[in-house]
Design goal:
Strand content: 35-45%
Strand order of the largest sheet: 1-3-2-8-5-7-6-4
Order of helices and strands: EHEEHEEHEEHE
Helix content: 25-40%
Shape: globular
CATH architecture: 2-Layer Sandwich
Largest sheet: 8 strands, antiparallel, barrel
Distance between the termini: 33 Å
Amino acid sequence: MSQTFDDGYACVPYTHDHKSIEIKESWQESKDVENMYFVTATFSQDSKPYFPSHANHYLLAKFAHDAKITADIEKHSQEKTAFVFNMNSEIFERDVEGTMNFVSVYYLEYSKSEEDLSDLAMVVSKNDRVRKASTGSMMTYSSEPPRFTFPYQNNIVVLEVSSQKSHQSVNKYCEMTRRNICRKGITMTNLVGLSILEKLK
């Protein structure tokens, strides 16, 4: 049986303005935020129509409880979309050499059965750079309502990757993993790749 969590990732546009600086300072002081990073986001062609107002740079916060996180995001609402990924079950976790330098977010186009998750875990575990894989749901926040509703918000998969290689190399490796999962008959589509540029907390 999957273990349940109320942790996850918050991904907020970093625009060097008053709003994003206030959020950064609030999260640096928060006990609910375990780690925080400055990242570059690369959205896939499949996900761009749903989130046309995305940003290139984000603050990425790994949080333990989402109540304060979502309150901060709502208080500092921006035109560019912010994302909260709530993890509800862990597929696997292991020790990997090196520090985390990439977070890859996907969505499954069909509901996930236990068998699908077991197949997914088996394929992902062959990627020796993935330190943790989780499934969960996504919420988005923007002062501009999206044109299209994203229909897969409850089928999110997040991979945390540690590697000394370049972000392009890690991204290619993750894409190879995604294709291997699709060969198993599981339609997993890339949502966004988050390249960690700097650890802030």
